[in-house]
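Worked Example 4.2. Consider the chain below.
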Amino acid sequence: MTTTARNIGTLIVVILKARNLPNKRQFGKQDPYCSVALNGETRKTKIIKRGGQHPEWDEEVRFNIYEDPDALSSSGGGTPPPLPPKGGRGPKKILGGERMAVACFAADKDPDLIGEATVDLTEVLTKGETDEWFTLTNKDKYSGEVYLELTFWSNEPRPEKKSTPRLVKANKQYGGPGTFVPSDDSPNHLQQGSGSFHEEYRRESLPSAFLPSNSSTGLDLYKPEYEHTVKARAPRSSSVDQVVNDMGD
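Applying the procedure from the previous section yields the following structure tokens:
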């Protein structure tokens, strides 16, 4: 019984450049290009005329990624499939396997293979992106390197973030300087006559010397020190008054 493969995302491959490629021409510079193959599909870059040993392509190719529907039923011997990763993350079993083939050729009547490599897609399918130099070989010999940027766009919905409740601080009402009266427990006589209450509170908080003598509280007016001194002394008559008194006698 076969089932339809489900499209799980898109793999974007950016073929940037290569370095240290062997020159396949005896005279002049070679015309290199690069090919990428995955799940039976092949994508090619443009040919760089006289690109030589250090060509730069900077081209992007894309592959549709399909989940392998027979991945869970392929385990033989009665062995149960492995448990899925926590949080739903981790590489999925895809059609064609998690490996991609990359190769560089020198363009000619018959393209000449420069070097090839196999790219493991496990990291990009797990993390979402990766980029590095991949070593090319030809007949088990070093044949340069190619630089690839890999990005995987998943069709799966993003997991919802759990919102943590924030603690709400209690709203306290400011009741004036030096006092605090909660809004629910405030007495009636404080709420109704707030003006006279604050005025009386100010009078009580002041020293007695600073209150007027004719106030309703009956306290003495502030009297400076020099007034007490002047009143304590005997009144002196001026020189004019003394002359008038002598003439009257």
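The first helix runs from residue 122 to 127. Residues 87 and 159 are 8 Å apart (CA to CA). Compare this with Example 4.1 before moving on.
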